[in-house]
Amino acid sequence: MTPSITEAGPLLITGARLVDARGVVHARADVLVRAGRIVAIDDRLEAEEATIWPLEGRTVTPGLMNAHAHVCLEPAADPEAILRDETLAETAVRGARRLREALVAGVTTIRDVGGADGVNIALAGLVERGEIPGPRMLAAGQVITMTGGHGYWFGVEATGRTRCGTRYEPRSRPAPPRSR
Fold this sequence. Notes:
- By secondary structure, the protein is of the alpha/beta class.
- It folds into two domains: 50 residues, Roll (Urease, subunit C, domain 1); 109 residues, Amidohydrolase (Translation Initiation Factor IF3).
- 19% of the residues lie in helices and 31% in strands.
- The longest helix is centred in the middle third of the chain and has 17 residues.
- The chain starts with 10 loop residues before the first strand and ends in an 8-residue tail after the last strand.
């Protein structure tokens, strides 16, 4: 397996056009990365034993964040039908593929707001340990929704009132049939 950027030695990106997190454009900049973190940005940098990526003519930007994603769901017209017909192993493999695709597209942080059967939590752990490539992942686990609400078919339904005005009576639906 190829070492992750946090395991590899220093990386020096040279000669790139840089747009920083404030939107300021630098016509030419060098960027030094150590252990997966940017440690220096300047017009001309040097670093002993660094791998050099010459990026003249290319643009470097901050990573993107996807603040609302469902890694376990296929982006299709009927994701429910797909999820119901696939095995948990297929859900996990396809979720891992979607994480890799997001990372390649420039997403460095993804907030997964609800997944099926703990698969999104497992994927987040695999990414964190460097076992699969993917953006940093904040995974919410299973969806909690009102009765019949958005995502009820793979989450937990809550209904009713408490002393504060909301009643939470978790009501799990039977797991959808999955092909084996």
